[in-house]
Amino acid sequence: RNCRGNPNCLVGIGEHIWLGEIDENTFHNIDDPNFERRKKNAFVGLTNLGATCYVNTFLQMWFLNLELRQALYLCPVARPEYVTAEKKDYEPQTICEHLQYLFALLQNSKRRYIDPSGFVKALGLDTGQQQDAQEFSKLFMSLLEDTLSSQKNPDVCDIVQKQFCGEYAYVTVCNQCGRESKLISKFYELELNIQGHKQLSDCITEFLKEEKLEGDNRYFCESCQSKQNATRRIRLLSLPGTLNLQLMRFVFDRQTGHKKKLNAYIEFSELLDLGPFMEDR
Question: Which N-terminal stretch is annotated as signal sequence (predicted)?
Fold first, then answer.
C-alpha cells in the first residue's frame, strides 16, 4: 500500500509503477557532451539533413580549398546592421556570408559536426530529394562567381575563375582541304565517361579522343564551302588551380528506360600528370 500520508515515502507517489516502466538501456542513448566534442586535430563533420550528402561533399571540398576559403573570409558583410537590441545573434544574409559562417565553424568549432540548414535553406534546396551532384556544382559555382564579381578586391572577385576555370579548344580538321578551325571554350569540370574503364587516365584519354564526322554528321567546311568528312577532338589549353573531374556514374539503360548507376572502381595515382594531354601554345 502507498503511504499517502507520509511525504517522505517515495512509495506514496507510485515509485514502483514509473520505475518499472523505464528501460535502463535507454540511459545509454542520452547524449554525452563529451561525445559531441571534437577530438584534437579531427575534422568537423556536417549533418545530413535527409538527402543532402551531395551538398555536404562539395562544402567539405570547397572548405579544404585554402585559396577559396581565404578569399571568402575577405568578403565584407553586406549588412552589418543586422545586430539590434532585439536580435543579437548573427544570421548570414547572403550566399557568401553563409559560406563564411560554415567555413568558420568547420575550422574552429569544438563540436564533432555542425548543421548546414541555413545554407541549404538559403539555396531553396529540398532536403528530402536527392539532386544531381554535377548539376548542383555547376549552378552553385555560377552563382558564386556572379556574386563575387561585384567585389572590388581582385583577390576575391575572380577567385572562382582562378581556382576552377580552365580552357580547352574544340579543333575540327577538314579531311578534304586540311583546314583547321578552333573554338575555344572555358570549363569548370571535365565530365568523364567511366564505362569500360578501370584507370582515370583511360577516362581522360577517351574524353580527348578524336571523333570522326561522317555521313549525316559531316562538317561544313568554310574553305570548301560544302559538307566534308572531318575529325574533331578536344585539346586542353590551360588547367585551373583545382581541377574538377566528374565521373559520370549514371548512364541510360535502354532495357528499363531508366538511369542506372555504375559502381565500377576507378584507379588513379596520387600524382596526375596531364602534361601529355596539354597542347603546346
Answer: none
The stretches of 187-272 forming alpha helices (DSSP H) are 200-207
Task: Please count the other Cβ atoms lying within 10 Å of the Cβ belonging to residue 259.
Answer: 10
**Contact indicator for 277, 204 with CB cutoff of 8 Å:** yes
Where are the alpha helices (H) located in the chain, listed in sequence order? 15-20, 33-36, 53-63, 66-73, 95-108, 117-123, 133-148, 154-157, 159-164, 200-207
The CA distance from 15 to 4, in Å, is 12
Q: Record the pTM.
A: 0.75
Report whether 56 contacts 49 (CB < 8 A): no
For the stretch 163-197, pLDDT in tens is 999 999 999 999 999 999 999 999 999 999 999 99
The secondary element (H helix, E strand) that includes residue 253 is strand 250-253
Cα–Cα distance measured from residue 166 to residue 279, given in angstroms and rounded to the nearest whole number: 13
